Amino acid sequence: MKEKAKQFKNQVQTFWTESSTLRKSAVISVVLLLLLAIALAAALLFRTNYAPLYSQLTLAEAGQIQEALEQRGVAARVSNDGTTIHVPEADVDRLKVDLAAEGLPKSGSIDYAFFQNQMGFGMTDNEFTVIERSLMQTELAELIRGVQGVEQANVIITLPEESVWLNSGQESSTAAVVLQLEPGYTLDSSQVKALYHLISKSVPNLPIENIVLSDSQFNNYTYQEEETSPAASFQSQREIKQEIESDLKQTINQLLSAVVGPENAIVSVTADIDFTQEQRTEDLVEPVDEEEVSGLAISVERINEMYEGTTGNEEGVAGVGDEIPNYTGAAGGGDSESERTEERINYEVNRIHKEIIESPYEIRDLGIQVMVNPPEGMQALPPQQTADITAMLETIIRTTLPDDGEEEGEQDVGDRVVVTSMPFAQTETGEAEQPSSATIPIWIYAVAAGLVLLIIILAVLLYRKREPADLAEEQDEAAEPEPEQEDEPLMETEETEESKQMRQLNRLAKEQPEDFSKLLRTWLSDE
Question: For the chain, how big is the Rg over CA atoms in Å?
């Protein structure tokens, strides 16, 4: 063992003596870099990671917490002008529970930002969702606190679960925000509207109607639309059109996924919407009895008069009749009879007063285009299946379009439906996973790559250092026959021969360096 160590020492000394200045510098640099990398890795592995325990504390509360930590012997750091306290990461959860039992802190918020540096490949989807929502709530609250007049903000966000199925509808997020305003400050309508837009655009798939905004005094702030301008009206009409097309597309996708399978159909819906608004007033009079076309009799008055009697002699003025010549005298008296019937009926009819405001929009026309991926090994769907899909789409059009009293022919409805069948372009197997924020920091990869590179360089240099001596030994051993001796003397002879060969090589390198270099080149060329 001692001879082996001595031999290795001699080899190292020989290599160092024969090495050039450039090679010596390279070896020293590699060794120093390797030691530096090892020291850096050890420092990173054994250092104490600090994480925020509480943030946005008052100075009094920060002092109380600092005193409580010192009593427990916990090393703590203070930052952000004394409002944030950092403790060793391993003690964060335990200290939160212990301090909460003592009623500390009385204010401040737990900082979730340290989770960003702790997310790794072993994190589950549920853990990532919880952390993502917590970070979103914290960042949104910080953003709202920057609004004039807002001292504090508490945000609760509910995110819908994403579904991988084609026939599942997309749900909306919800948000509840409670503001703590400065004393005597009141938000105006422009600030309320800005807050609604800020919250809506900060959370994915969060419509304004799903936001509840109030202050600590339980005053609700509602979103009020401004007077409609032409641009706003156009945007509203465009959103209505897109929503109608999206709903119809989703319904058709649900039906087609059950027939041809999910992700085997592409649907396009084009809707023609009439946004003409009409407001009118109607006063109608309709009969109560539509068959008789008559009203309802509310009062009836009938009068019947009959007269019977005798008519008396006519009497003239004295002295007149006889004085007129050729005047015929009246006849004598007789019987007379008369009858009068009178009927009065008052009818009441249906009087209808209508104030009609038409719907703000109406689907005037509809077009559906469907492209279906046929089963494997086929270039198109069977004609019967294509006809069934077409009939289904025509039924959807009939039930969606308004009934204007005119029956549309099969040709008219069929012109609105186009069903195409052709194989879809094949995509690469498996979709590339989206980069997740739960990744290892880049500097760890850089340090690991540097360590691997240093180890490879050191191994190559050591291999080249030992190669000339090993080749010389092998050549000398092949040239000289081994003497036949007993086992123990043989070991001594081999060690003596190796020592002689080393001395010869050293002498050759010192006295005849040119011959020694030629010998090395010969060995290298043979290799």
Answer: 52
The predicted model gives 484-489 an average pLDDT of 43
Over 60: is that where the pLDDT of 142 sits?
yes
- Tokens matching residue 76: 């703590």
> What's the CATH number where 147 sits?
3.30.300.30
Tokens of 191: 């600030």
Same domain, yes or no, for 174 and 253? no
Residue with the bigger pLDDT between 517 and 16: it is 16
Angstrom CA distances, 478 to 223, 463, 468, stand at 97, 22, 16
Q: Is 108 left (phi over 0), alpha (psi -120 to 50) or beta?
A: left
Q: Is there a single domain that holds both residue 52 and residue 37?
A: no
The two tokens of residue 437 are 């924020």
Residues 6+ apart with CB under 8 A from 146: none
Dig out the tokens for 226 from the structure. 């401004």
Co-location of 127 and 218 in the same domain: yes
Decide: helix, strand or coil at residue 149: coil
What are the structure tokens assigned to 65, written together?
């917490």
* Token reading at 178: 């409670």
Q: If pLDDT is split at 50, 70 and 90, which confidence band does 484 have?
A: very low
Q: How far is CA 487 from the centre of its chain?
A: 80
Neighbouring residues of 387: CB distance < 8 A, sequence distance ≥ 6: none
Residue 120 corresponds to which tokens in the numbers above? 């790794």
Residues 12 and 83 in one domain: no
Of 31-40, 124-133, 148-157, 460-469, where does the model show the most confidence? 148-157
User: 92: which 2 tokens?
Assistant: 């964060």
SS3 412: helix
3-state secondary structure of 353: strand
Q: Interior CA angle at 136 toward 134 and 140, to 5°?
A: 120
417 in Cβ contact with 390 (< 8 Å): yes
Are 275 and 236 spatial neighbours (Cβ–Cβ below 8 Å)? Answer: no
Q: Left (φ > 0), alpha (ψ -120 to 50) or beta: where does 377 sit? A: left
Which of 157, 109, 153 lies closest to 131 in space, CA to CA?
Answer: 157
- Examine residue 374 and say whether the peptide bond preceding it is cis (omega within 30 degrees of 0): no
User: Which structural domain, as residue segments, surrounds residue 158?
Assistant: 122-224
SS3 call for 470: helix
pLDDT above 80 (res 218): yes
88 φ, ψ to 5°? Answer: -55, 135
Buried residues in 188-215 as b, exposed as e (16+ CB within 10 A): eeeeebebbeebbebbeebeeebbebeb
Query: How many angstroms separate the CA atoms of 208 and 506, rounded?
Result: 88
Q: Give me the number of domains the chain comprises.
A: 4
Asked if the model's pLDDT at residue 178 lies above 90, the reply is: yes
State pTM to two decimals.
0.36
Question: Taking a C-beta distance cutoff of 8 angstroms, is the pair 341, 304 a contact?
Answer: yes
Quote the DSSP letter at residue 356.
Answer: E
